[in-house]
Design goal:
This protein is α+β, with helices and mostly antiparallel strands. The protein contains four helices and five strands, in the order αββαβββαα. The termini are far apart.
């Protein structure tokens, strides 16, 4: 399962706090603050986040308490699973639009990283397959053919390897 890292969380917080005039917290899927504009709140359990995780909905805190402050907390979803929570401190009616903006931005960044990671894995699998293909001495086993097919490589087609070296030539007048 994809997770939200401390580095991603703090990066999102830092960028958003340059744009919006409220403190932003990002909590992991266990409700622990892993990114915050207020460094004193890092690594503490956030009760509003716990409620948002449990209910999978936006939670508004109208009045602060001992360890809570007024604000809005909303879950960050990836493939319909809660991977974290965005919290913005302030009057709920003031910060509600911002929390949606930060949530959408966070979800897009997580999705983008996931797609890039999947692409990297696919390229690595192709590289490994091609290395195996180049060095294979025996005929192709059925599972090898199937792996090739899954990677979009039909090993039944005849192929020729070509290596090109490009050289830059400087012409003198």
């Amino acid at each position: 399962m994809i997770t939200l890292t401390e580095q991603q969380a703090q990066n999102i917080v830092d960028r958003m706090m340059n744009v919006i005039p409220y403190n932003v917290n990002i909590m992991n899927n266990k409700g622990i603050i892993i990114g915050s504009g207020d460094k004193n709140r890092l690594y503490k359990l956030h009760e509003g986040a716990m409620e948002a995780i449990g209910k999978k909905v936006m939670i508004e805190i109208l009045e602060g308490g001992v360890d809570t402050k007024p604000g809005v907390n909303t879950p960050i979803l990836f493939q319909n699973k809660v991977i974290g929570v965005i919290g913005i401190t302030g009057k709920p009616e003031d910060v509600r639009p911002f929390v949606e903006l930060v949530r959408i931005t966070s979800e897009l960044l997580v999705t983008q990283e996931y797609v890039l990671f999947q692409r990297k894995i696919s390229e690595q699998l192709k590289d490994e397959f091609l290395y195996e293909l180049i060095h294979m001495k025996n005929s192709y086993a059925q599972d090898f053919k199937e792996r090739g097919g899954a990677l979009g490589i039909d090993v039944s087609l005849p192929r020729v390897a070509v290596i090109l070296t490009l050289m830059r030539v400087a012409w003198k007048k």
